Give the backbone structure.
Amino acid sequence: MAAWNLYRHRNPDGSSKDWAVRSNSDGSITTRWGKTASKLPGVRHRRGIRQFDIETQKQAKGYVLVGEVDIDVNGNVVFPGKTSATPSQLPESDANPVSVPAPPVEALYWTVDCHAKQSIRVELGIEVRRLIGVIQNVSDGDATSEQEWNSWQQFIDAILNAETFELSGQIKSAHGVLPWLFLLALKAKGYKGVAIDIATETARDLSVDLKIEQEVLAFFGTDLDSIRDTAEVLGLLKPRLNLAGAMSDTDDCWF
């Protein structure tokens, strides 16, 4: 593992996010980021910028140096004096293993790092506006003031500036399921140069496959069937084939 400089930004709500950087032998730098946890899921390799300069930029945004750490290829953070578990250190497998349920989701943390070229940023802006419009139609203005997700405006401001940007934030259960679906829909597009990461408080990365994210749906007090129509409109689920309707449109062909 290589040495990294680890920085931390504390949010007004008491949560925090981490960012780490290292210089590589080929002159490039690598950065990692995510919610403060034992793993930083976001990763990016960059050229044409010095480590000192990008660290200065982060400090200007309120990031404070935590210290030097090691980070492995999977993003696991190891502080000095501690070691990560090796196969020999892991407990022996039980002949009759007991299934341990995953800890319940308490909050979602997300980051968006947009350093795409201009044409991609234009496409991203169009898609952001389209998705927000779809969500406004779906929600039909039902959200109360305490349920409003303040990051809608962050996205609108970012795309209007037409520049590269980095955004991050938190989604609580009171915000409802729509902000999460919005981010998943953007992530599913796979825009080149736009890294979107969504994770739980245990740093588990979330998939765009809603069928395997039942615990997150439960966190928002819903399930797949309840949000299916919205997910289909957002492109996260394929529309179900209505066999009864399809058959009603066909003529009988009995001989």
